[in-house]
Request: fold
Amino acid sequence: MRKLAPVLRDLLAAGEPAALVTIAGARGSTPRELGTRMLVTPERFFGTIGGGRLEYDAIGEARRMLVEGGSHLLREVPLGPALGQCCGGHATVLIERARPDHLDALDALDAGGPGFLLTRLDRAAPTMLLEGRVAAGREAPPAGFERAVERLLEGAGRPERVTHPDGSSWLIEPTMDDAPEVFVFGAGHVGRALAAALQPLPCRMRLFDHRPELLRELPEGCNASLTEHPTDRVLEARPQAFFLVMTPSHDVDCDICEAVLRRGDFAFLGLIGSSTKRARFEKRWRAKGIAEASIRRLVCPIGLPGIGGKEPAVIAASTAAQLLQAFEQTPHPVPWAERRV
Reply:
C-alpha cells in the first residue's frame, strides 16, 4: 500500500495546499473501513476512501475547502439512493486542511509501533499521539479518556469512534499495525514479481536474499534485506506470519521451511516447486522428527489451483491471490465498532 506520510511531507515542504480526508465513522456496508485516509490537492489526490460517489463528493468538498479557506468539515453520509449508491451503510467523512500534526499522525501509523491516535471530530483540533498514557499533542484528552483506551486495548484493537459524556466526539486509532506479515525468501524472477504484486496489498512484506544485485531491482519502497543466514530471519517474524520460500538452492529452501515448521506458530508456509520436490523434503523432515501435522500444513506447489502458467508474473499474481484468501481465513479481532465512553 502506498503510504501517505511521505506524500504529505513533500506537499508541506513544497507549500502545496492539501486536505486530509478520513473515514471517521462506518456502519453497515461501506466502501472502506474506519480510519481509511486519502490526501487531496487542487489538482491531484493520493489514496482512496473507496471510490464511487462518496469519494467523488469528498474530493470536491476538499477542493472547495482549499479554495475558500476552511479548515474542518464533518459530513454524515447515508450510502443510499440519495447518493446514487446502494451500499446501504452510513459513513462519516472528516475533511481537514492538512497540518504538520497530521504528518506526525501519518508517520506514527506508517511506523506501526505501540500507541494511539486521538482525532477530535466535532471541531478542529490537533491530532494527538498517545504513547502509553502520555499525550504528545498540544491538547489534553478529556477526563476519563484513558478508560476508553483501556477498553480498546482489551477489545478489538481496531479504530473506534466514541462519544464522550462532555459531548465531544473522537476517533481513536491504535497505531500498532496488525496487517499480515509476509516473509519472502528469494529475490529471483518470481520473488521480484511477487514483491511487485504484494506491494499495493494490505500486508507488511519483507524480502530476503544473499544477492545484492537482485535487491537493487525491486520496486521503490520494498522492504528488502541482504542476508547470508535466512533461517535466522525466520525467528524475527511475529506469530501468525506468512512465509514464502523460493531461493535458488533446494537445500536452503528445505532448511528455511524446516525452521518455519519447527516454530509452529505460522499462518501460512508456501514453497515454490513441484510435488516431487515436496515429497523429497517431507522425507528429510520426517527423518528429523518433524511432526506429520506440521508437514501437512506446507503449501507446495504455490498458487491458486487451476492457474498453470509458469511465467513469473503469473505465478506471482496467483500466489498473491492465494495469500489474500489465507489472510481472510486467519482469525482477526472483532469488527470495528461505534459506542459511547
